[in-house]
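C-alpha coordinates incoming
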Protein backbone atom coordinates (compact mmCIF):
# COMPACT_ATOMS: atom_id res chain seq x y z
CA UNK A 1 0.00 0.00 0.00
CA UNK A 2 1.54 3.36 -1.07
CA UNK A 3 1.79 6.35 1.28
CA UNK A 4 -1.02 8.13 -0.57
CA UNK A 5 -3.50 5.41 0.41
CA UNK A 6 -3.10 5.66 4.21
CA UNK A 7 -6.51 4.45 5.52
CA UNK A 8 -6.21 6.75 8.57
CA UNK A 9 -6.50 9.79 6.28
CA UNK A 10 -9.93 11.29 5.67
CA UNK A 11 -10.87 11.13 1.98
CA UNK A 12 -10.84 14.72 0.74
CA UNK A 13 -12.21 13.85 -2.70
CA UNK A 14 -9.17 15.35 -4.37
CA UNK A 15 -8.21 12.23 -6.33
CA UNK A 16 -7.06 13.07 -9.87
CA UNK A 17 -7.69 16.80 -9.40
CA UNK A 18 -5.00 18.91 -11.04
CA UNK A 19 -3.30 21.29 -8.62
CA UNK A 20 -0.72 23.97 -9.38
CA UNK A 21 1.28 25.08 -6.35
CA UNK A 22 3.69 27.94 -7.03
CA UNK A 23 7.09 28.56 -5.40
CA UNK A 24 7.02 24.96 -4.36
CA UNK A 25 10.49 23.45 -4.63
CA UNK A 26 11.05 24.18 -0.91
CA UNK A 27 9.26 25.53 2.15
CA UNK A 28 5.51 25.97 2.54
CA UNK A 29 4.87 25.53 -1.19
CA UNK A 30 6.71 22.21 -1.24
CA UNK A 31 4.74 20.96 1.78
CA UNK A 32 1.44 21.93 0.11
CA UNK A 33 2.40 20.17 -3.13
CA UNK A 34 3.42 17.04 -1.22
CA UNK A 35 0.23 16.94 0.84
CA UNK A 36 -1.98 17.52 -2.24
CA UNK A 37 -0.18 14.70 -4.05
CA UNK A 38 -0.71 12.47 -0.99
CA UNK A 39 -4.40 13.34 -1.18
CA UNK A 40 -4.44 12.07 -4.77
CA UNK A 41 -3.93 15.24 -6.85
CA UNK A 42 -1.88 15.46 -10.00
CA UNK A 43 0.48 18.19 -8.89
CA UNK A 44 2.44 20.79 -10.84
CA UNK A 45 5.22 22.67 -9.06
CA UNK A 46 7.48 25.59 -9.95
CA UNK A 47 10.49 27.55 -8.73
CA UNK A 48 13.43 29.41 -10.25
CA UNK A 49 16.34 26.99 -9.63
CA UNK A 50 15.95 23.95 -11.91
CA UNK A 51 18.15 21.66 -9.76
CA UNK A 52 16.19 22.35 -6.56
CA UNK A 53 12.93 21.97 -8.48
CA UNK A 54 14.03 18.65 -9.91
CA UNK A 55 14.96 17.42 -6.43
CA UNK A 56 11.52 18.42 -5.14
CA UNK A 57 9.80 16.68 -8.05
CA UNK A 58 11.72 13.47 -7.39
CA UNK A 59 11.03 13.66 -3.63
CA UNK A 60 7.25 14.06 -4.05
CA UNK A 61 7.17 11.28 -6.64
CA UNK A 62 9.17 9.00 -4.36
CA UNK A 63 6.94 9.67 -1.35
CA UNK A 64 3.57 9.53 -3.10
CA UNK A 65 4.21 7.28 -6.10
CA UNK A 66 2.44 9.86 -8.26
CA UNK A 67 3.92 11.67 -11.29
CA UNK A 68 4.67 15.34 -10.65
CA UNK A 69 5.00 18.06 -13.30
CA UNK A 70 7.84 20.50 -12.58
CA UNK A 71 8.19 23.71 -14.58
CA UNK A 72 10.92 26.28 -13.85
CA UNK A 73 9.37 29.74 -13.48
CA UNK A 74 10.13 33.05 -11.79
CA UNK A 75 6.91 34.55 -10.42
CA UNK A 76 8.23 38.09 -10.86
CA UNK A 77 8.41 37.56 -14.66
CA UNK A 78 5.04 37.80 -16.45
CA UNK A 79 6.27 35.86 -19.50
CA UNK A 80 7.34 32.97 -17.24
CA UNK A 81 3.91 32.88 -15.58
CA UNK A 82 2.40 32.82 -19.09
CA UNK A 83 4.67 29.90 -20.02
CA UNK A 84 3.67 28.06 -16.83
CA UNK A 85 0.04 28.35 -17.84
CA UNK A 86 0.76 27.10 -21.33
CA UNK A 87 2.52 24.05 -19.93
CA UNK A 88 0.22 22.98 -17.07
CA UNK A 89 -3.02 22.67 -19.11
CA UNK A 90 -1.09 21.20 -22.05
CA UNK A 91 0.46 18.48 -19.89
CA UNK A 92 -2.31 17.89 -17.35
CA UNK A 93 -5.31 19.01 -19.44
CA UNK A 94 -7.15 20.96 -16.73
CA UNK A 95 -6.67 23.00 -13.59
CA UNK A 96 -8.79 22.42 -10.49
CA UNK A 97 -6.68 23.93 -7.72
CA UNK A 98 -4.34 26.91 -7.57
CA UNK A 99 -2.23 27.50 -4.48
CA UNK A 100 -0.79 30.94 -5.19
CA UNK A 101 2.26 31.07 -2.94
CA UNK A 102 4.76 33.84 -3.72
CA UNK A 103 7.76 32.21 -2.00
CA UNK A 104 10.71 34.29 -0.92
CA UNK A 105 10.69 37.19 1.51
CA UNK A 106 10.60 40.94 0.91
CA UNK A 107 12.97 43.36 2.70
CA UNK A 108 12.26 44.75 6.17
CA UNK A 109 12.27 48.49 6.75
CA UNK A 110 10.28 51.70 7.03
CA UNK A 111 9.63 54.55 4.62
CA UNK A 112 13.17 55.88 4.59
CA UNK A 113 14.88 52.48 4.34
CA UNK A 114 13.22 51.12 1.22
CA UNK A 115 14.16 52.06 -2.32
CA UNK A 116 11.78 52.54 -5.25
CA UNK A 117 13.29 49.42 -6.83
CA UNK A 118 12.62 47.33 -3.71
CA UNK A 119 9.00 48.50 -3.77
CA UNK A 120 8.58 47.49 -7.43
CA UNK A 121 10.29 44.10 -6.92
CA UNK A 122 8.02 43.31 -3.99
CA UNK A 123 4.99 44.54 -5.96
CA UNK A 124 5.82 42.08 -8.77
CA UNK A 125 6.40 39.17 -6.37
CA UNK A 126 3.56 39.59 -3.89
CA UNK A 127 0.72 41.41 -5.63
CA UNK A 128 1.23 41.05 -9.38
CA UNK A 129 2.03 37.34 -9.19
CA UNK A 130 -1.34 36.84 -7.44
CA UNK A 131 -3.11 38.93 -10.10
CA UNK A 132 -1.37 37.24 -13.05
CA UNK A 133 -1.86 33.71 -11.73
CA UNK A 134 -5.56 34.44 -11.17
CA UNK A 135 -6.04 35.98 -14.62
CA UNK A 136 -4.75 32.78 -16.18
CA UNK A 137 -6.33 30.26 -13.79
CA UNK A 138 -9.85 31.65 -13.59
CA UNK A 139 -10.81 31.24 -17.29
CA UNK A 140 -9.78 27.57 -17.10
CA UNK A 141 -11.75 27.01 -13.90
CA UNK A 142 -14.79 28.83 -15.27
CA UNK A 143 -14.73 26.69 -18.40
CA UNK A 144 -14.61 23.57 -16.20
CA UNK A 145 -17.43 24.83 -13.95
CA UNK A 146 -15.44 24.69 -10.68
CA UNK A 147 -12.16 25.58 -9.03
CA UNK A 148 -10.42 26.36 -5.78
CA UNK A 149 -7.85 29.08 -5.16
CA UNK A 150 -5.81 29.70 -2.02
CA UNK A 151 -3.48 32.66 -1.63
CA UNK A 152 -0.66 32.36 0.90
CA UNK A 153 -0.02 35.71 2.60
CA UNK A 154 1.09 36.34 6.19
CA UNK A 155 -0.49 36.68 9.63
CA UNK A 156 0.84 40.24 9.57
CA UNK A 157 -2.18 41.20 7.43
CA UNK A 158 -4.22 41.24 10.66
CA UNK A 159 -1.63 42.88 12.93
CA UNK A 160 0.91 44.73 10.77
CA UNK A 161 4.28 45.14 12.55
CA UNK A 162 6.16 48.44 12.24
CA UNK A 163 9.27 47.04 10.57
CA UNK A 164 7.40 45.39 7.67
CA UNK A 165 6.04 48.37 5.73
CA UNK A 166 6.51 46.78 2.30
CA UNK A 167 4.93 43.46 3.19
CA UNK A 168 2.11 45.14 5.15
CA UNK A 169 1.12 47.33 2.19
CA UNK A 170 1.22 44.57 -0.42
CA UNK A 171 -0.19 41.64 1.57
CA UNK A 172 -3.18 43.84 2.41
CA UNK A 173 -3.54 44.31 -1.36
CA UNK A 174 -3.57 40.55 -1.95
CA UNK A 175 -6.15 40.11 0.82
CA UNK A 176 -8.45 42.74 -0.73
CA UNK A 177 -7.93 41.24 -4.17
CA UNK A 178 -8.81 37.75 -2.93
CA UNK A 179 -11.91 38.92 -1.06
CA UNK A 180 -13.25 40.79 -4.10
CA UNK A 181 -12.46 37.85 -6.36
CA UNK A 182 -14.26 35.44 -4.03
CA UNK A 183 -17.52 37.34 -4.42
CA UNK A 184 -17.30 37.65 -8.20
CA UNK A 185 -16.36 33.99 -8.71
CA UNK A 186 -18.74 32.28 -6.25
CA UNK A 187 -21.48 31.92 -8.86
CA UNK A 188 -19.02 30.01 -11.07
CA UNK A 189 -18.41 27.52 -8.26
CA UNK A 190 -14.90 28.86 -7.73
CA UNK A 191 -13.93 29.35 -4.09
CA UNK A 192 -11.18 31.77 -3.09
CA UNK A 193 -9.56 31.83 0.36
CA UNK A 194 -6.45 33.22 1.99
CA UNK A 195 -4.13 31.42 4.42
CA UNK A 196 -2.16 33.77 6.63
CA UNK A 197 0.80 32.03 8.31
CA UNK A 198 2.60 33.08 11.46
CA UNK A 199 6.09 31.61 11.98
CA UNK A 200 6.94 28.32 10.25
CA UNK A 201 10.10 26.28 10.22
CA UNK A 202 11.21 27.02 6.63
CA UNK A 203 14.03 28.76 4.75
CA UNK A 204 14.98 32.06 6.29
CA UNK A 205 13.14 31.43 9.58
CA UNK A 206 15.11 28.18 10.01
CA UNK A 207 18.39 29.96 9.25
CA UNK A 208 17.65 32.64 11.87
CA UNK A 209 16.94 29.93 14.46
CA UNK A 210 20.12 28.03 13.53
CA UNK A 211 22.15 31.24 13.97
CA UNK A 212 20.78 31.76 17.49
CA UNK A 213 21.40 28.12 18.46
CA UNK A 214 24.99 28.40 17.26
CA UNK A 215 25.63 31.81 18.82
CA UNK A 216 23.88 31.36 22.17
CA UNK A 217 24.01 27.56 22.63
CA UNK A 218 20.32 27.50 23.58
CA UNK A 219 17.83 24.70 22.77
CA UNK A 220 16.22 24.98 19.35
CA UNK A 221 12.75 25.57 20.79
CA UNK A 222 13.80 28.60 22.81
CA UNK A 223 15.72 29.95 19.80
CA UNK A 224 12.55 29.51 17.72
CA UNK A 225 10.54 31.47 20.29
CA UNK A 226 13.15 34.24 20.29
CA UNK A 227 12.42 34.60 16.59
CA UNK A 228 8.66 34.13 16.73
CA UNK A 229 7.91 35.99 19.98
CA UNK A 230 4.84 35.20 22.04
CA UNK A 231 3.33 31.99 20.61
CA UNK A 232 0.76 30.53 23.04
CA UNK A 233 1.30 27.02 21.67
CA UNK A 234 4.97 27.39 22.60
CA UNK A 235 6.56 26.57 19.24
CA UNK A 236 6.62 27.59 15.59
CA UNK A 237 4.62 25.68 12.99
CA UNK A 238 5.74 22.90 10.68
CA UNK A 239 5.20 23.30 6.96
CA UNK A 240 3.12 20.10 7.04
CA UNK A 241 0.64 21.73 9.44
CA UNK A 242 0.07 24.60 7.01
CA UNK A 243 -0.25 22.12 4.15
CA UNK A 244 -3.02 20.25 6.02
CA UNK A 245 -5.04 23.47 6.25
CA UNK A 246 -4.51 24.37 2.59
CA UNK A 247 -5.46 20.85 1.48
CA UNK A 248 -8.64 20.93 3.52
CA UNK A 249 -9.53 24.38 2.13
CA UNK A 250 -9.25 23.29 -1.50
CA UNK A 251 -11.24 20.11 -0.86
CA UNK A 252 -14.99 19.96 -1.25
CA UNK A 253 -15.20 19.30 2.50
CA UNK A 254 -14.69 23.06 2.79
CA UNK A 255 -17.43 23.61 0.20
CA UNK A 256 -19.17 26.49 2.07
CA UNK A 257 -15.95 28.36 2.79
CA UNK A 258 -15.05 31.23 0.50
CA UNK A 259 -13.78 34.78 0.96
CA UNK A 260 -12.12 33.86 4.27
CA UNK A 261 -8.69 34.76 5.56
CA UNK A 262 -7.59 32.00 7.91
CA UNK A 263 -4.74 32.64 10.27
CA UNK A 264 -2.48 29.77 11.32
CA UNK A 265 -0.04 31.07 13.92
CA UNK A 266 -0.09 28.95 17.10
CA UNK A 267 -2.42 31.51 18.70
CA UNK A 268 -0.04 34.48 18.35
CA UNK A 269 -2.58 36.97 17.08
CA UNK A 270 -4.50 39.07 19.61
CA UNK A 271 -7.26 40.04 17.19
CA UNK A 272 -10.77 38.62 17.55
CA UNK A 273 -11.31 37.99 13.80
N1 LIG B 1 7.77 30.64 6.73
C1 LIG B 1 7.16 31.54 7.44
O1 LIG B 1 7.33 31.61 8.67
C2 LIG B 1 6.23 32.53 6.79
C3 LIG B 1 5.51 33.40 7.62
C4 LIG B 1 4.66 34.32 7.04
C5 LIG B 1 4.54 34.38 5.67
N2 LIG B 1 5.27 33.52 4.89
C6 LIG B 1 5.13 33.66 3.44
O2 LIG B 1 4.77 32.43 2.84
C7 LIG B 1 5.42 32.27 1.59
C8 LIG B 1 6.19 30.96 1.59
O3 LIG B 1 7.09 30.99 2.68
P1 LIG B 1 8.33 30.03 2.78
O4 LIG B 1 8.86 30.20 4.15
O5 LIG B 1 8.00 28.70 2.24
O6 LIG B 1 9.32 30.78 1.77
P2 LIG B 1 10.67 30.25 1.20
O7 LIG B 1 11.22 29.13 2.02
O8 LIG B 1 11.52 31.44 0.95
O9 LIG B 1 10.18 29.69 -0.22
C9 LIG B 1 11.09 29.10 -0.99
C10 LIG B 1 10.43 28.58 -2.27
O10 LIG B 1 9.94 29.67 -3.04
C11 LIG B 1 10.58 29.62 -4.32
N3 LIG B 1 10.67 30.99 -4.83
C12 LIG B 1 11.21 32.05 -4.21
N4 LIG B 1 11.11 33.14 -5.00
C13 LIG B 1 10.49 32.73 -6.14
C14 LIG B 1 10.12 33.38 -7.36
N5 LIG B 1 10.39 34.67 -7.57
N6 LIG B 1 9.49 32.67 -8.31
C15 LIG B 1 9.25 31.36 -8.14
N7 LIG B 1 9.56 30.69 -7.02
C16 LIG B 1 10.20 31.37 -6.04
C17 LIG B 1 11.93 28.97 -4.01
O11 LIG B 1 12.56 28.41 -5.14
P3 LIG B 1 13.66 29.26 -5.97
O12 LIG B 1 14.48 30.02 -4.97
O13 LIG B 1 14.43 28.21 -6.71
O14 LIG B 1 12.86 30.13 -6.86
C18 LIG B 1 11.48 27.87 -3.07
O15 LIG B 1 10.86 26.81 -3.76
C19 LIG B 1 6.36 33.47 1.45
O16 LIG B 1 5.79 34.39 0.57
C20 LIG B 1 6.47 34.03 2.83
O17 LIG B 1 6.65 35.43 2.84
C21 LIG B 1 6.10 32.60 5.43
Amino acid sequence: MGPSSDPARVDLHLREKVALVTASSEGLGFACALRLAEAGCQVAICGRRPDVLERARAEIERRTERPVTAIPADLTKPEQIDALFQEVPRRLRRLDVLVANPGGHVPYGGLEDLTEEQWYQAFELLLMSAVRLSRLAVPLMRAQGAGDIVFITSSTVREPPQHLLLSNALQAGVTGFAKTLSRSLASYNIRVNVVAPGYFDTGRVRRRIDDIVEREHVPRQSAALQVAGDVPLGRIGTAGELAELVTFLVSRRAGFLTGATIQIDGGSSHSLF
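note: The chain has two domains: 14-198+239-264, 201-236.
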